Amino acid sequence: MDIKEKIENLTAELLKHQYLYYVKTAPEIPDKEYDRLFDELAELEKKYPEYASDNSPTKRVGSDLDNTFPEKEHSIPVLSLEKEYTIAGLEKWLAKTIANSDKTLSFVVEEKIDGASIVLYYKAGKLDTALTRGNGLVGNDVTENARTIKQIPLVTGETADFAIRGEIFFNKSEFVTFNAAFENKFANPRNLAAGSLRNLKSSIAAKVPLKIFTYEGYFTPPFTNDHIMILAKLKENGFTINKNVGFFSDDSGMRSRVNEKLPEIFSGAISELPGYVKRRMEQRDNLDYEIDGLVIKINELDVRDALGYTAHHPRWALAFKFEAPTAQTRVKEIQVQVGRNGRVTPVALLEPVKIAGSTVSRATLHNQEYIEMLELGIGDSVGISKRGDIIPAVEEVLEKDPENPTIFKFPRECPFCKSILEKDGGHHFCKNRACPERLARAIIYFASKDQMDIDTLGEKTIVFMFEKGFIKTIPDLYSFNYDELLKEEGFKEKKVNNIKTSVENSKKKPFRKVLTALGFDGLGASAAADLIKNGFNSIDKIIAAAARGNVEEFSRIGGFGEITANLLIKHFTDPQRLAVIEELKKVGLNFAEEMPAMREAGDMPFNGQVWVITGSFDNFQPRSKAAEEIERRGGKVTGAVSSGTTHLLVGSAPGSKLQKAQQLNIAIIDEPHFLEMLKETCI
Prior knowledge:
By secondary structure, this protein is an alpha+beta fold. It folds into six domains: about 5-60, Helix Hairpins (Orthogonal Bundle), CATH 1.10.287.610; about 85-320, 2-Layer Sandwich (D-amino Acid Aminotransferase, Chain A, domain 1); about 325-430, CATH 2.40.50.140; about 435-505, 5' to 3' exonuclease, C-terminal subdomain (DNA polymerase, domain 1, Orthogonal Bundle); about 510-585, 5' to 3' exonuclease, C-terminal subdomain (DNA polymerase, domain 1); about 600-680, 3-Layer(aba) Sandwich (Rossmann fold). The protein starts with a helix and ends with a helix.
């Protein structure tokens, strides 16, 4: 046997075992034997790269080379779906569809997976290209990353060209663990799946256990007139299809033939379809992956062809969404904002719409990956909600702008200083530390209510002073002669005196407040409290430890780890930051605080407790004051309710966190009860 033949045989054998392991969950050989065959193939491909296949099993591990994600045109229709939110509306659509057809129809109901859409193009039965949905006309080429997904067949038994549509997703049960590896930058499993699929290094994407359900196949020439039989063929060729599929036909013979091919799916008469949809709605929370609805499709392909498409959606399918968007509006513009540490955040400017009694005209879009996941462009009609009853968010694109169906792309330059934006992880950054917007945002953050609480210096006043050149850096807040404001319109003596008093009072803030107000990445209120609790109760101690460069000094603090430790070393060895700290020392800010009397961890009354705070309070304004009390007693405060949360402190207008805590049977503590707890555990 020559080398080329040996490589081909090993490739075929390993692909077979990958299919048995990842798709059928029925391995035939032990892991060690698989690893031996894999290593043998990898070694041969290294010596004889001219014989290596593009679809070799070794491609599953990915590459460390950057992917550029060029755009390519789709050769099949990749459109959105018409949407319905009520059972009555679904029944009306079914009746209308059946009445308008002169043929006997059947229907297929599939779960609408909340993931990242992908189109797989095969040539001669081998994976050739994988494209994201994009704007429906073109998508990003993510082939190298798609090859790393174990459930995607690299080689099939087909000999013709064909295309497959599917949805990449991530299991809920694995989300917390894997998101931690990405520094918790993804809000949910859908974002993690989309972000991993677009990772610039396929070797990183390969480490994430992405899954796929395939739901459409396009074969030329067609071998059947039934969509359900296409699903059966996909299954026969090693593709993973969702077992939670319903087939509905009044032809009992057809149902029997379908059950022979796909015994795992549900089948019934068309009259049973609405009831099936209701049951699937109730079973949603029991799934280990996210779905946001069901898709109802006409099964007969010739009827689909006759009905055709609008510019937005096929006329033969309907998306039944479980939750209607709170409101519908249109994106007028997308702007980018630059934060104090250079992070660039896109914001959608919306046609004003009312939600929960307030008018919403802006919504955050998080980052470029979120925009691409939504496939959002200026002019699109969108569904928006208020997450946690507070933050407006764009949830989905309801209809692309028919005149300009694009996807928004970040600008190349910072709009404030014209520096080239740099991508780092899931976000873009302006790395110019002299960027005027970064400097202004740092001052605004420092003076804000949750930080130094200089309450008479609001954002508008700071922006005015910054643009006039009165202040340029944080220390300028303490050196500026505020009497100069009396010469400016809108500044009377009383207002100026109040500003001077607030600035002076801020000098009394404790060290932990000053530390977090500096606004350094990774140094929030909880981290500052942990530093102080572990002996770093002065800025000099922190700077000295950072100068030693010993990561372990910081990483051994519970909850820190190497990432936070390295950030602290970076921040507190930076000459510019140290210069700011020295200037703030000179004006009299507190850069040390007495260590609390040492107590055993087990003796701390809130030791081991994890709290989340939501709503507004009479006695804790800002809410960080309540967090301080919890942390002083040994508790930990986090921002999101999870299975690890032990207590939820609830004020007025608590939002969705209360509902989630109730579902998880977490202790709910109101303000009067909390005050009693503080009295009982006085420290």
